[in-house]
Structure formats: structure tokens, C-alpha cells
Design goal:
Glutathione S-transferase Yfyf (Class Pi), Chain A, domain 2; six-stranded mixed beta sheet; Rossmann fold; globular; six-stranded antiparallel beta sheet; 15 strands
């Protein structure tokens, strides 16, 4: 689903932005604080319902504005979201109101690649689990409903520990049964998708980190040989003491291993950045193999990656058929890359929240 037109209102310093006739690659350039990343943020809000900068809509909606609007048009669909500072939202697809963000997310698979951050690798299991579940959402049709059932049941079980000091095993049994049922389903779905993902991951690592041998491991979050139902019974007293559910797919994780230990400990900062890119690219490649197009937000490409890595990344995204929105301080070098790679692109200058299309002229060779 390529975006052909984008309309943004009242997002940070972006008053009104209209971008038309969008190409496979859109380059946003300007000084720091001009609003480049805010354009990416708006696309992210449209596709996922949330910002990658803050969890609070009032922090990205312009001060004193009652709401923000992001609207996009593709060849086949018109999609839009209206965000209110209260946290409420209105979502429409082709003029019809839809109930959940998931319906919009299905239409617009989106990956955010930020070479400045290695959070997925360094900051606990949650971002890695979310990375896997993003892939699950787009390749396993029944995943989202199973995940919803599991999450709601987990919330109900945990609330029992908060309302009752030591709920009995009998009191918890209905929640244990449901949690085990949905949890086992969730685990089996994750295993099946993970096995496919491993193949794509190893291919991308060979391209970006050819001198390293890396392996991706999945841990379930519970002892699968025992089974979740029996484990919940065995851990009953400990869960009562902790007052929350310790074991289950909500504690699943991905481990990235080198020949000498965990990637977190063994890789340099530069290697971690390329590894993070490889993780995202492998997911895009897996969707591409299923004939699903991905929109990619690529923030500050020239800040952290060297020239060779920049070209490899742009070449790979072009090969995978992704539509790319990228920001940079150095428009000349990005323009040169895209010209050398024969990639169609469109340049937009961003200054003080104003986004203006620039004429497409060939770069000047030294």
C-alpha cells in the first residue's frame, strides 16, 4: 500500500502539510528542529495509532489545538485518523468509521528504522517481543485475536492478586484454564513464524555483517515441557507472593547470540546498529515474500551509518519494494546515493514546520 498523498495538521510545529504525488523514496531535509522527524511521527501515528516519541497525544498535538489530523491516500484507499488530546481518536477507511486501529494497521504495514537507537538489542525483552509480535500481526491472520484474548485474561488474573491478598487455586482456576489455552496457542503461532523469520534474518546478517556469525533464539516465557496449565498451578503460591503472573508468553524473548556470547555484550555500538537494521530488514523481506508492501520510516540515515552502509540499506529497501520516507541533514549525499542507484525520489525541504517540495535535479558530481 503505497502512499500517494499525505495530509498532516497540528502535529508539533507542522501547522498544515500537504505532500502529493509521492514517489518510492521521499527525502525530508533541513536543520535540526525543523520538523523532519515530525512528518515521520505523523505517518507512524496514522499506521499504528501511537507516536514513537511519546505515549501522550497531548504532547504531539499543537498547544491549544483541540485535535490533530493525519490523512493519506493510496491507489485504492483513503485512510485517516483524528487524534484528540484526551486520548480519544476517530479512524476512517474510505469514509467509513472503523472501531480499532488494527484494521488500519493491516492496510499499512510500517517499520520505523532509527540508526541512532539500539533499544531493541539493549533494553530488555519488551521491545524484542514487540518486534516479533509486529511480524506475527502481519503474517498470521489469527494471531491478533488470540493475543487479545490472552492479554485480557492475563489482566483479569493479575487483578485477582490485587483485589484478594491470597486467592485460592480454586478461585484462579477459570483464569488459569483460559490463560493456558490462549497462551499455548500464542506460543505455537510464535514458534511457527519465528522459524520462518530465522531464514530471512540470517540472509540479511550476511549482507550487513558478513564477518559475524549471529543466531536468533526464541524463548517462550514458560517451561514448555511442563505446559502452562501445570506451571500456573505449581507457581500458585509464588504468584500470590509476587501479586502478578510470572510465567507465560507475556515474558517471551528473543536472544541474539554470537559465537562468543550474547550480542548485547559482544558487539560494538556500530555493529549493534547494523544488527538492528538487519532485524527490521529481515521482517520487511519476509512480508515482501508474501506480496505485502511495507512503508519504512528511516530517521537520520547519514548520522550514524557510513557511506557504504547507507548505500547497502537504500539498495536493499529498493530491492524489497518498500516505500521509504527518510530524513537527513545532508541532502546532497542522499541525493547522490539515490541517483547512483537509479531510484525514483522526491525531495522536500523542511523549515520551521513548513514542508516544500523541491525540483528533482541531478546531483552535481565533483
Amino acid at each position: 500500500m503505497y502512499l500517494e498523498r499525505l495530509h498532516i495538521e497540528k502535529i508539533r510545529n507542522l501547522e498544515t502539510v500537504v505532500m502529493k504525488n509521492l514517489q518510492p523514496f521521499t527525502v525530508l531535509y533541513g536543520v535540526n528542529g525543523s520538523g523532519k522527524t515530525s512528518v515521520l511521527e505523523a505517518i507512524h501515528i496514522l499506521a499504528t495509532g501511537r507516536s514513537f516519541r511519546t505515549h501522550m497525544p497531548k504532547h504531539y498535538i499543537q498547544h491549544h489545538a483541540p485535535h490533530a489530523i493525519i490523512f493519506a491516500q493510496t491507489h485504492a484507499d483513503k485512510v485517516g485518523v483524528q487524534k484528540f488530546s484526551s486520548g480519544e481518536q476517530l479512524i476512517k477507511i474510505n469514509g467509513d468509521r472503523v472501531a480499532t486501529q488494527g484494521q488500519l494497521a493491516q492496510l499499512l504495514p510500517l517499520q520505523h528504522i532509527d540508526p541512532l537507537t539500539t533499544d531493541i538489542i539493549d533494553h530488555g525483552s519488551k521491545p524484542r517481543r514487540e518486534l516479533l509480535d509486529w511480524l506475527m500481526f502481519h503474517v498470521e491472520p489469527s494471531f491478533y485475536q488470540v493475543w487479545l484474548h490472552y492479554t485480557r485474561t492475563l489482566k483479569q488474573r493479575n487483578s485477582m492478586f490485587k483485589h484478594y491478598k491470597k486467592p485460592s487455586l480454586e478461585d484462579l482456576q477459570p483464569w488459569n484454564n483460559l490463560l493456558a489455552e490462549y497462551g499455548e496457542q500464542l506460543h505455537l503461532q510464535r514458534v511457527a513464524v519465528f522459524m520462518q523469520w530465522q531464514v530471512f534474518f540470517e540472509q540479511e546478517v550476511k549482507k550487513l555483517l558478513p564477518d559475524l556469525v549471529l543466531h536468533l533464539d526464541y524463548t517462550a516465557g514458560f517451561q514448555t515441557e511442563i505446559g502452562l496449565a501445570l506451571l500456573l498451578e505449581q507457581q500458585h503460591h509464588k504468584d500470590c507472593e509476587r501479586r502478578y503472573t510470572e510465567h507465560g508468553p507475556h515474558r517471551a524473548d528473543l536472544k541474539i547470540k554470537t559465537e562468543h556470547g550474547d550480542a548485547t555484550d559482544m558487539l560494538s555500538r556500530g555493529q549493534k546498529k547494523l544488527l538492528m537494521v538487519a532485524l527490521k530488514l529481515s521482517q520487511i523481506a519476509m512480508l515482501h515474500a508474501s506480496n505485502k508492501e511495507t512503508v519504512v520510516l528511516l530517521d537520520d540515515i547519514t548520522a550514524e551509518l557510513d557511506c557504504a552502509a547507507q548505500q547497502r540499506l537504500l539498495t536493499r529497501l529498493h530491492t524489497l519494494g518498500s516505500q521509504v520516507f527518510l530524513t537527513t541533514l545532508d541532502d546532497a549525499i542522499v541525493k547522490q546515493h539515490l541517483h547512483d542507484l537509479c531510484i525514483s525520489y522526491q525531495m522536500f525541504n523542511v523549515h520551521a514546520g513548513v514542508v516544500q517540495m523541491q525540483p528533482s535535479t541531478p546531483p552535481e558530481h565533483e
